[in-house]
Design brief:
Helix content is about 50%, strand content about 15%. It is an alpha+beta fold and about 500 residues long. It is globular and about 75 Å long. The N and C termini lie far apart (about 85 Å).
């Protein structure tokens, strides 16, 4: 079947009746529930956009001949890589990059693991075939995915098998002729319950050993599978209108604890079963982390553009763009944007074909960007907050403007240099929702931990970085100095 529309996305969710809980209650219909209907509408918009801009968002399936989503594309040339990135950024533009788990993120992962599936065959050829078949299934049916990587934070000083309650984390219970039984808890499924299926993989930020084999699993199942429950955190969509909460009312993706209560997974949906070695190598050896990072950096370019546009609009609105320190803050966002663009350009134009025939971006550029952005994003948010100053505190609502007694007062009193009061407050409400609301705070925390603990990621980056050539250059420089080496002192 071809790529789905927004209507089809919503109809699937209604039909699936996923087991979702929020605010202590079972959700009967996520498409209508106040905690989810805003983001469901935004997700539907992404799928409709595929048909509004088919030349950019769709391509012809190599197996069915149907038009399928561009973000599933296996790039075979640099031009293909750019085409896929342009589709990614087209989607990101709808939210200003504020949807971190739009479907393209996991579409990239499924593509990479489906094509580069040889690693899974180390355990059994069946697992490699499963990965290839799942990629085709997801592409041909435009499957939307959530995913979960993280074990519960019980005692991070110990491995899973050493925990006091070693069965609290998701683990293998049983293998049988038809599949496997799994049980336990996983974190932290963004968009949990508002997608078709869940992709389960272990985090590789902290490597697992053989004793962690029972926890080393990878599989994909429908979100309405018996025994599977999503326990969502408090929603940051407070049911306000889009004028008052322009971001949180539309792009609050939610994050969920995932509970597996003796869940059955058929063999054809299993990719890794009890093999920590394969799990540790999956993201890197399939190049999934490369293609996922390409999606993330592409999205973050759009997000930085959105932040810059907001900052410049604030400067212009209240006439502060002539001050030195203000220009310096704007420059910092601009430098970040251009650096991110440069990383992306290098990644694409230094791309190489891997052994599976996939045009794979230069990972060194993407790895630098994905390590750097979590460190700089909090600073960008702070710049917006500092520029807005007290204006981010005294922000009336749309209802205040509609009140006959006070509307004209705040419209006049909150005017800007070249902007009316109503428009200026609307701009400042956007900046507030981006930086200071519960949604904005979550965005900052989310970006900081997007790929895992930045300190641990930085340690890995440092350990893997090519260092010898730089040390050798210094040794050579010092060796070739004209100062004679002193004679050894006799004792």
């Amino acid at each position: 079947m071809p790529a789905k529309t927004g209507k089809e996305y919503i109809e699937r969710l209604k039909k699936a009746k996923n087991n979702v809980y929020v605010h202590g209650e079972k959700v009967e219909d996520v498409t209508e529930h106040p905690a989810f209907k805003g983001v469901v509408k935004s997700m539907a918009r992404l799928y409709d956009l595929q048909y509004e801009k088919p030349e950019k968002m769709l391509y012809t399936s190599p197996s069915s001949g149907e038009k399928v989503g561009m973000t599933f594309l296996q790039p075979k040339t640099i031009e293909d890589l750019i085409r896929r990135r342009e589709a990614i950024q087209e989607w990101a533009l709808t939210s200003g990059g504020m949807m971190g788990r739009s479907p393209d993120y996991l579409n990239s992962e499924v593509m990479a693991m489906g094509i580069s599936n040889g690693l899974f065959a180390e355990a059994d050829q069946m697992f490699a075939d499963n990965a290839a078949n799942y990629y085709e299934f997801a592409r041909e049916n435009d499957i939307s995915l959530t995913h979960t990587l993280i074990h519960p934070q019980v005692n991070r000083a110990k491995a899973q098998y050493e925990q006091k309650d070693a069965n609290v984390a998701l683990h293998l219970v049983e293998k049988n002729a038809d599949g496997i039984i799994v049980d336990g808890i996983r974190l932290l499924a963004t968009q949990g319950g508002i997608t078709d299926e869940i992709l389960v993989f272990p985090s590789t930020v902290k490597k697992a050993g053989e004793l962690d084999d029972p926890y080393s699993l990878a599989f994909a199942i429908p979100n309405n599978t018996p025994g599977l429950k999503y326990i969502s955190r408090e929603s940051f969509d407070y049911g306000k209108n889009e004028w008052d909460h322009p971001l949180s009312s539309r792009f609050e993706e939610g994050d969920a604890i995932v509970s597996f209560e003796n869940v059955f997974v058929p063999w054809e949906r299993v990719f890794v079963c009890g093999n920590s070695s394969i799990c540790n190598r999956t993201f890197r050896e399939t190049n999934a982390v490369v293609h996922m990072s390409h999606q993330v950096v592409s999205k973050n370019v759009v997000k930085t553009e959105f932040l810059l546009g907001t900052a410049l609009s604030i400067m212009d609105a209240i006439g502060i763009d002539q001050f030195q320190h203000v220009k310096d803050k704007g420059t910092e966002i601009m430098l970040t944007l251009e650096a991110m663009k440069s990383h992306l350009y290098k990644a694409e134009h230094n791309a190489k074909l891997d052994k599976y025939g996939t045009m794979t971006p230069d990972y060194s550029a993407l790895d630098a960007a994905r390590n750097w952005y979590p460190r700089i994003y909090p600073k960008l948010v702070e710049i917006i907050r500092v520029l807005g100053a007290s204006g981010l505190m005294g922000i009336p609502t749309q209802a205040d403007f509609e009140n006959d007694e006070i509307g004209h007062l705040i419209h006049r009193g909150l005017q800007g240099k070249n902007i009316e009061g109503y428009e200026r407050v609307q701009l400042f409400r956007l900046a507030w929702d981006m930086t200071m609301s519960a949604f904005g705070s979550r965005q900052m925390h989310y970006e900081y931990y997007f790929f895992g603990d930045p300190v641990r990621m930085g340690m890995t980056y440092f350990d893997n970085y090519e260092k010898d050539m730089y040390k050798e250059r210094i040794a050579s420089f010092l060796k070739n100095t004209s100062v004679p080496k002193p004679k050894a002192t006799e004792v």
